[in-house]
From TrEMBL:
<dbReference type="InterPro" id="IPR001594">
    <property type="entry name" value="Palmitoyltrfase_DHHC"/>
</dbReference>
<dbReference type="GO" id="GO:0019706">
    <property type="term" value="F:protein-cysteine S-palmitoyltransferase activity"/>
</dbReference>
<feature type="transmembrane region" description="Helical">
    <location>
        <begin position="6"/>
        <end position="24"/>
    </location>
</feature>
<feature type="domain" description="Palmitoyltransferase DHHC">
    <location>
        <begin position="155"/>
        <end position="300"/>
    </location>
</feature>
<feature type="region of interest" description="Disordered">
    <location>
        <begin position="896"/>
        <end position="923"/>
    </location>
</feature>
<feature type="domain" description="Ataxin-10">
    <location>
        <begin position="1240"/>
        <end position="1338"/>
    </location>
</feature>
<keyword id="KW-0132">Cell division</keyword>
<dbReference type="Pfam" id="PF09759">
    <property type="entry name" value="Atx10homo_assoc"/>
</dbReference>
<keyword id="KW-0449">Lipoprotein</keyword>
<protein>
    <recommendedName>
        <fullName>Ataxin-10 homolog</fullName>
    </recommendedName>
</protein>
<comment type="similarity">
    <text>Belongs to the ataxin-10 family.</text>
</comment>
<keyword id="KW-0564">Palmitate</keyword>
<feature type="compositionally biased region" description="Polar residues">
    <location>
        <begin position="841"/>
        <end position="850"/>
    </location>
</feature>
<feature type="compositionally biased region" description="Polar residues">
    <location>
        <begin position="1178"/>
        <end position="1189"/>
    </location>
</feature>
<feature type="region of interest" description="Disordered">
    <location>
        <begin position="1178"/>
        <end position="1231"/>
    </location>
</feature>
<feature type="transmembrane region" description="Helical">
    <location>
        <begin position="79"/>
        <end position="103"/>
    </location>
</feature>
<feature type="transmembrane region" description="Helical">
    <location>
        <begin position="237"/>
        <end position="258"/>
    </location>
</feature>
Length: 1342
């Protein structure tokens, strides 16, 4: 029993100590024992400890204590908040499960009602801020009047550097000024102020109610426990009326608590805390009754002390000023506050005010003229009590409560008789709602800049609606005026703010682009303009013909788009207004136009003047495209709703067919669930997934097309429709040409069974050529499960969708599948535990050796098959001319032209500039071709858009990685699951290789952040897989992915080796522990390296050796030089990646466990056996070859794009591709003689890093025959400079402390000496020889 009593006393003591420590400084306790105890805790005891510490430890202990205390008391830390929540959770965890079976149904209903509100209100208190910022400062200045007693006008906050509003205070912990500051609450880790005071009061009420209800319930349960122990005797003792001995009473209750320890402990804790909670509530109830805050109570207490000292005097404005005008600083001219006062309060040094005094405008103190003190002014009376002082913030208890809860007041009140002076009208003094602006505020008038811009927009709209209505002179004036507005929006924030918040401006901009885009297209696309002799149905000639009007129109639109871009640098409201008026959709349409123009080459007749004009217009279109991308970036910054909408616009499917397939439901974000204008609301929903058709790959393409031709165009809802839509998008123009009818007529033909045969024949003729993506769709169909029974209901899949019907003018739904982020939460979280399975390697060295042999056998067998059919005149796809890059992604348009009829080639060329014939934007993506158009200095806005959408804390005020609705992660998944998103990301990666961008380039850094977001979300393996190409061992995009991974892992796990001043400034930073997502990514990369890269690369090297040995012909080599350079670049990036990993011991141990030594030794043995070493004579010649080296990278690496819209035939591309920086290698070099420069040296470097002080690696190298391979690298090799020195160092590490390896080397025998033809030894008259002991020796040459 004594133990329980001690616990109760301890809880009581702790509660009392907390109350004294936190609230003993309040003025109400200043001259009480509680105030003395507070000073003892915070002043007397620390001073005593400090004095003792100075004598004993020289002040070191107190210095540490001060730092700790400063953190606890003056930093905004969550320790006390965590303690408070832990008390709530812990008590409820102990109480509710134990009591649940013993309570009635009523209490089971009441418990959740009592438990949940404190958590909700606590959350509201913590997240709701009352900070005063430059944006809301003007409103806060007019929220409360200055009472000229506690708060005076003219005082600036020294930290925030703006005038302090009345009733505000700067919080040094929150580092912000707080409106209606009450106090900084350590329990909430936040200041209690204007916006969260109502939540704070409600929290006190709910916690008090919870404690009282818990105490009552605990008391009843303990009574039950006593009844179970001894109902007859113990129950009577617990009644207050039958108390004979207090000691017996407490002992009996202690017995009940001991018998039911969980209920008893929580009951005891609740009883002890009830006084604390009620004291809080009572104190704040008193503050509400008195019309003041905790901060103001301290000021009132100071005034009370001054009153007690006789230093406070009062008078009235009527007495002081009579009928004279009242100074502005004393007027009660606040238009909304319902309380005024005629009183004037002065604070002196104890002497009554005398004639001639001066009243300070910034305080209550007076200045008396020196040496001229006159008689006492009788108008001032000494204040004897606080009751004589008016508090204009005290409206009466109920109105005070309404004001605290931010409700309406009853009426305007007066503290004392009001002095009559000119004031705003009575209507301005009516009751108002807190936070609302004054009722007298009217809509701001149109500013000169807004009026000017409206005039410009109206004139520009008329120009595009009716060409020629406005003459050129006035158009030039409007263009000049537009540039003035552009300059002002760039320089003046007020102009940006006014224009950005004007709905009329955004409506005008949208209207102009709506009319301007068709005009631009009619001047730029031959297929949209009637043919004439002026441009001969060539888009390039048409552009040159319309050169002068296009230059002015594009410049005019570029200025307007730049203004729109600048206007978005204001607030979210401007972004939302732009969306409400549909301006973002007009920008996307303008981007499409710009890309279609700039991505095409010059297709007109050879004419220097036309080509020059065309190039100038294309450059202007590029400028306009850059401005549009910058607008899109500004459009989504700090705006989650706009980001998700743009993501669906860019990467989602656009459905126009049966709406029953797409079923939108509830909004994704309920806070933005109200549609505004034409801006859509992002919603979640379902789409019907038809039963999968397993037999898809058995159907003909004609069958699929005929099934869906009746409602084309329509975006796919199933894989079956996806196949048909892909085919239709490729061949629509050819169908119209062959059948001589448009698509509508063809659809009518499809309704007649006899005419269907004609359609099928045309389709068969067109489909004789290869169709991009068809084989991939067939492979995907084979992986589908068998078809479901017909009577089984269709399955549904979650989607995220927006309705674009308002802007499209017809039913249009943009949607994408909603990824299940729960599968990736555990992987993406930084603290996810690493399991043994994560670090296991599924592919062993033995299986890798088998894979290598299979690759060699398959390659040789393929060569034999090729040689057998070589005379048939049907060349193999991979056996194309070595000098021309194969493009397996050529559009069907170019291929089908040759498959139908060669005589039609000239006519078909006229349709080449019809961009519609390509796979549509749905398959390719609106922004995918932008990297093919712009250069490194122009493209920065595009990766910044992707950054803003998927990179955590980029463009956000605080990170967003939390819960299943993490928007950044959601968009990252959508980007990689949608084909359009993957296409864009692939091109952005290839851009790095095409321009050979260095690591310190801004574009490269942005792509590192993007791919790091992909890595954090656990999607790097999916990205690497999706970026592959069937004919490539390593595609260019995959090589760049590995390069970026190398950069990320070097910065993360080897910070001392990161180059650059920013990183090297802190070389002592230690690498962090290995995360689970990184381990799984590296395991996947290593699996690819072992199972694909090494076998296929070694097979190619082996074939090179067979060709050199005469067992195969050079023309049998399956790859051209482009392909070999891509393989080389990829393998080199893999080796550099593993080289970086070996710099970290944890990664090194993991690689050793996976036996990477086998793969490295296998590669070096194949290189040694099949690739001859370069001699000194070939060193200079080899340096000029096109094979890239790491020491001297003079130009971009060779990249063959999977799809180049600038020319339908890559073979004719030459060097004219706009925006391409890749250089073609010499076509005369034989790919079978590829030298793999520096590859062997890099392998030796990686082995050296692995084997250093690692006996396991020493043994692995010996077991896989690597000792002899490394020894063979000690010979000079011009293809691998300094490999001899690296090999010697590797041998040193290999033999160090390893008897078996040393013995192996000792037993090696010298077989021959390399001849030193005309070398130093020969010129000196000596030669090398092997003596009788088998050792190397020198002898004089005979």
């Amino acid at each position: 029993m004594g133990f329980l009593r001690n616990i109760g006393l301890a809880i009581l003591a702790i509660s009392g100590l907390i109350f004294v420590a936190l609230f003993g400084r309040l003025p109400v306790f200043r001259k009480t024992p509680i105030g003395f105890a507070h000073r003892t805790i915070w002043i007397y005891i620390p001073n005593g400890i400090a004095s003792l510490d100075r004598h004993l430890f020289g002040g070191r202990f107190f210095q540490i204590w001060n730092r700790l205390g400063s953190y606890i008391l003056h930093d905004n830390h969550p320790l006390i908040l965590i303690f408070f929540v832990s008390l709530l959770l812990g008590g409820e965890y102990l109480f509710i499960p134990t009591a649940w079976s013993r309570i009635s149904t009523v209490h089971r209903f009441l418990i959740p009602v009592a438990v949940l509100p404190p958590y909700l209100l606590l959350y509201a208190c913590v997240v709701t801020k009352s900070f005063i910022t430059p944006e809301n400062h003007a409103r806060e200045l007019h929220r409360y009047p200055y009472d000229r007693l506690l708060f005076h006008a003219g005082h600036d906050c020294s930290t925030c550097r703006f005038p302090k509003p009345a009733r505000s205070k700067h919080c040094s912990i929150c580092k912000a000024c707080v409106s209606r500051h009450d106090h900084h609450c350590v329990w909430l880790m936040n200041c209690v102020g204007l916006h969260n005071y109502q939540y704070f009061l409600s929290l006190l009420v709910s916690v008090s109610a919870l404690l009282i209800y818990g105490s009552y319930l605990g008391h009843e349960l303990l009574i039950q426990t006593l009844d179970e122990l001894d109902p007859s005797r113990l129950r009577s003792i617990t009644q207050w009326s039958s108390i004979d001995n207090w000691m017996t009473f407490f002992n009996i209750w202690a017995l009940a608590i001991a018998a039911d320890i969980r209920i008893g402990f929580v009951y005891l804790l609740a009883v002890m805390c009830i006084p604390l909670a009620l004291a809080f509530l009572a104190y704040h109830t008193y503050l509400v009754w008195a019309g003041m805050t905790t901060n103001e109570s301290a000021k009132w207490d100071d005034l009370k002390d001054d009153i007690a000292d006789g230093c406070v005097f009062r008078s009235t404005k009527k007495e002081i000023y009579g009928d004279s005008p009242v100074p502005a600083g004393l007027r009660d001219d606040h238009p909304t506050w319902p309380m005024t006062s005629d009183q004037i309060i002065l604070v002196t040094d104890g002497q009554p005010p005398a004639d001639g005094f001066m009243l300070s405008s910034r305080s209550n103190y007076i200045v008396q003229q020196e040496g001229q003190r006159g008689p006492i002014d009788p108008r001032w009376r000494c204040v004897r009590s606080l009751r004589e002082v008016d508090n204009i913030y005290d409206l009466g208890f109920w109105d005070n409560l309404r004001e605290a809860l931010r409700l309406r007041f009853n009426s305007r009140k007066s503290a004392v008789s009001l002095f009559t002076f000119p004031t705003p009208s009575r209507g301005a003094l009516l009751p108002f709602k807190m936070g609302d602006r004054s009722g007298t505020e009217s809509k701001p008038k149109c500013t000169p800049a807004e009026l000017m811009l409206k005039v410009i927009l109206a004139g520009t709209l008329s120009h595009y609606e009716t060409r020629g209505m406005i003459d050129d002179k006035r158009l030039d004036h409007m263009l000049s005026a537009g540039k003035q507005i552009l300059y002002r929006t760039h320089q003046e924030s007020e102009v940006r703010h006014n224009l950005g918040l004007s709905p009329d401006i955004w409506q005008g901009l949208s209207a102009v682009l709506t009319k301007a885009i068709p005009v631009l297209e009619s001047q730029s696309f031959a297929w949209k303009s009637p043919p004439t002799a002026n441009y001969d149905h060539s888009s390039s000639n048409l552009i040159a013909y319309n050169y002068f009007s296009l230059v002015k129109d594009i410049e005019r639109l570029n200025d307007l788009c730049t203004i729109a871009r600048n206007l978005l640098a204001t607030t979210k409201k401007a972004q939302n207004l732009a969306a409400e008026k549909g301006f973002d959709q007009r920008i996307l349409a303008l981007v499409d136009t710009c890309v279609r123009v700039t991505a095409r080459g010059f297709d007109g007749e050879t004419n220097a003047r036309n080509e020059e004009r065309w190039q100038k217009v294309v450059n202007l279109y590029k400028r306009l495209l850059i401005t549009c991308l910058q607008f899109l970036h500004n459009f989504i910054m700090h705006n989650e709703q706009r980001k998700m909408v743009l993501w669906l616009d860019l990467f989602g499917y656009h459905s126009t067919g049966d709406s029953n397939i797409i079923q939108p439901k509830e909004p994704l974000d309920h806070a933005n669930s109200q549609p505004e204008g034409v801006a859509p609301v992002v919603k979640t929903g379902d789409r019907i997934v038809n039963p999968p058709i397993r037999a898809l790959y058995d159907q003909t393409a004609e069958d699929l097309l005929l099934e869906t031709i009746s409602n084309f165009p329509r975006e796919p809802a199933t894989i079956k429709e996806e196949a048909a839509m892909l085919l239709l998008a490729n061949i629509k123009d050819h169908m119209e040409k062959l059948l001589g009818r448009d698509l509508t007529a063809i659809q009518e033909m499809g309704k007649d069974p006899e005419q269907v045969k004609e359609i099928r024949a045309a389709l068969t003729a067109i489909l004789g050529a290869k169709v991009d993506g068809w084989s991939d769709l067939q492979d995907r169909a084979k992986e589908l499960p068998p078809a479901l029974p017909e009577d089984e209901p269709p399955r549904k899949k979650a989607i995220v969708t927006i309705d674009r019907s308002a802007t499209a003018g017809f039913p249009r739904i943009c949607w994408a599948d909603l990824p299940d982020l729960s599968e990736y939460v555990g992987l993406a979280s930084g603290d996810a535990p690493v399991t043994e399975e994560d670090t296991s390697m599924p592919r062993s060295a033995q299986s890798a050796a088998e894979t290598l042999q299979e690759a060699k056998d398959e390659l040789m067998a393929r060569l034999q098959e090729t040689s057998q059919i070589a005379g048939d005149g049907d060349p193999d796809y991979d056996g194309a001319d070595a000098g021309v890059g194969d493009d397996d992604a050529r559009s069907l348009e170019a291929v089908a032209e040759g498959s139908i009829e060669e005589e039609e080639e000239e006519d078909d060329d006229e349709d080449e500039d019809d961009y519609r014939g390509r796979p549509g934007d749905q398959q390719r993506g609106l922004l995918t071709d932008v990297p093919l158009v712009l250069g490194p200095a122009e493209i920065e806005a595009l990766p910044m858009i992707i950054q803003a959408g998927i990179v955590d804390s980029f463009g956000l005020k605080g990170g967003e990685r939390s819960g299943p609705r993490n928007m950044q992660a959601l968009r990252c998944h959508i980007l990689l699951t949608q084909e359009t998103g993957r296409n864009l990301l692939r091109e952005l990666l290839i851009f790095i290789a095409a321009w050979d961008l260095p690591d310190d380039e801004l574009y490269f850094k942005m792509m590192v952040q993007i791919m790091e977001a992909v890595l954090k979300n656990g999607l790097m393996s999916h990205a690497y897989s999706d970026f592959g190409q069937p004919k490539d061992i390593i595609s260019p995009a995959q090589a760049v992915v590995i390069k970026i991974l190398t950069h990320i892992f070097r910065a993360k796990y080897s910070p001392a080796s990161v180059t650059g001043s920013a990183q090297s400034a802190n070389p002592t930073k230690s690498p962090g522990p290995l995360s689970r997502v990184d381990i799984l990514t590296v395991r996947y990369i290593f699996t690819i390296f072992r199972g694909n890269i090494i076998p296929e690369t070694c097979a190619l090297i082996y074939l090179q050796g067979q060709i050199r040995a005469g067992r195969a012909l050079p023309e049998d080599f399956p790859l051209n030089l482009w392909d070999m350079e891509r393989v080389y670049e990829g393998v080199y990036q893999f080796l550099e990646f593993f080289a970086v990993l070996t710099e970290n011991n944890d990664w090194k141990n993991l690689l050793v466990e996976w036996e990477i030594v086998y793969d490295l030794v296998t590669l070096i043995k194949e290189l040694e056996a099949s690739i001859p070493k370069g001699n000194l004579s070939s060193l200079s010649a080899g340096g000029s070859r096109s094979t890239p080296t790491r020491e001297m990278a003079t130009g971009p690496v060779s990249v063959e794009r999977p799809y180049d819209p600038s020319d339908p035939d890559p073979a004719d591309a030459g060097a004219c591709s706009a925006g391409s920086g890749a250089e073609s290698p010499p076509i005369t070099e034989d790919p079978s003689e590829f030298e793999w420069r520096n590859l062997k040296k890099l392998v030796v470097l990686v082995l050296s890093s692995l084997v250093w002080k690692c006996p396991d690696v020493q043994n692995q190298i010996r077991r896989y025959g690597g000792v002899e391979a490394i020894l063979s690298c000690t010979n000079f090799d011009a293809h691998n400079p300094y490999i001899k020195e690296h090999a010697v160092m590797c041998l040193k590490f290999l033999l160090e402390g390893n008897k078996e390896n040393q013995k192996l080397v000792e037993e090696l025998e010298a077989r021959e000496v390399v001849k030193d033809n005309n070398g130093l030894l020969e010129r000196s008259g000596y030669e090398a020889m092997i003596d009788q002991a088998g050792k190397l020796a020198l002898r004089q040459k005979e």
